Amino acid sequence: MKNGLTTLANRQDTEHAPLDLSRLPLALHTKVDQAKSQQQHRRSENTVKSYLSAWASFVDFCDSYGFNPLPASPEILMAYLGQEMTRTFIAQFNGQETARHLSNSAIAMRVAAIRHFHIEHGHDSPTYHPEIIKSLEGFRRNQTREVLHDDKSPLLNDELGQLVTVISDNEKTLIKSRDLALILLLRAGAFRRSEIVKLKVEDLAFRLDGLEITIRFSKSNQDGKKQVKWLPDDEAFSANDAIKQWLEISGIESGYIFRSITRNSLALRTGPDEETPTLDPPVLCGADVNRILKGYLVKACIDVHRFAAHSARSGFVTQMGSDGEDAMKIQRRTLHKDLRMLSIYNK
């Protein structure tokens, strides 16, 4: 996937000049390669996918008018943004079809992708042109646009209780134990799905009255600064006992906490297969978290379209706020840097 960025962007031989290693002694060439190998970690997999999709849109636009996308002129970029800023699509809203414009984030992603590919290949980015910047500022503040905000409902205690009941009725011990720990921890820890699948046994520290979880990396912590979440045992729908039981039943003593299970539901998968060809042992991914949650929503006869995995995070904030908990306490769990952003999660 990382190589796809270079392949898609490489429309002509205009990349910046490579490093001249002839200036260095041969013994240092390996050191240079070691430094360059770190570049693969500059973008998350989800960001890579988004950039590829956004860049492909711009490439198609340029091709249709006979322009080269790399490097692109500010004029062709302005024309492209004019198309995208005024483009409408049909969406369902309150049971009716209605025309909607692209959101601020959708346009911002297109601009970020174009900037990325230009910088990646040694070109000045047209996204920095004053006319482009002014147009983007105006687009963000344009109140005449009709934008569809597909906000999901928060997963509150009522819905969570129904999910716990459905999960507990599962006769397959491994799946029941894993999914109960997964769903409860997702809500109790106010985790993003991308964060919970990366948790390892080494990140957990069970104390007398709660669980301490160390977060190594997250969406808002790309630099790996140590962050800690404290989950007390006495909260409603505490995940702590469920996690202990899952680790005991599964026999997982180190490494990733949430693993894939064999088709017969009798054991953990121990090697790669068609679904996870590069993971050993196979672990859950963010899409799996969403799939598992939605599966139990269906079984609990809850409208699956109202919820997604992120509903657990907003559900924690909303429930704690409704229960009168202090905003700073909630922030320590969600690890939001800005209380204004935290308020958006309180539905």
Tell me what the structure shows:
By secondary structure, this protein is mainly alpha-helical. The chain has two domains: 2-12 and 42-141, Tyrosine recombinase, N-terminal domain (DNA polymerase, domain 1); 157-345, Intergrase catalytic core (hpI Integrase, Chain A, Orthogonal Bundle). It has 14 helices and five strands. It has helices spanning 2-9, 29-37, 45-65, 74-86, 104-120, 130-141, 157-168, 173-188, 193-196, 240-250, 286-299, 310-322, 327-334, 339-345, and strands at residues 88-93, 96-101, 204-206, 210-215, 227-232. Strands 3-4-5 form a three-stranded antiparallel beta sheet. Strands 1-2 form a two-stranded antiparallel sheet. Helix 1 (2-9) packs parallel to helix 3 (45-65), helix 3 (45-65) crosses helix 5 (104-120) and helix 8 packs across helix 12 (310-322). The chain is globular. It starts with a helix and ends with a helix. Residues 1-15 have low confidence and may be disordered.
Q: Can you tell me the residue ranges where pLDDT is under 50 for at least 5 consecutive residues?
A: 1-15
| CATH level-4 homologous superfamily of the largest domain | Intergrase catalytic core
**N-to-C span:** 36 Å
Multimeric state of these chains? single chain
List the helices and strands and how they pair.
Blueprint: H1 2-9, H2 29-37, H3 45-65, H4 74-86, E1 88-93, E2 96-101, H5 104-120, H6 130-141, H7 157-168, H8 173-188, H9 193-196, E3 204-206, E4 210-215, E5 227-232, H10 240-250, H11 286-299, H12 310-322, H13 327-334, H14 339-345
Antiparallel strand pairs: 1-2, 3-4, 4-5
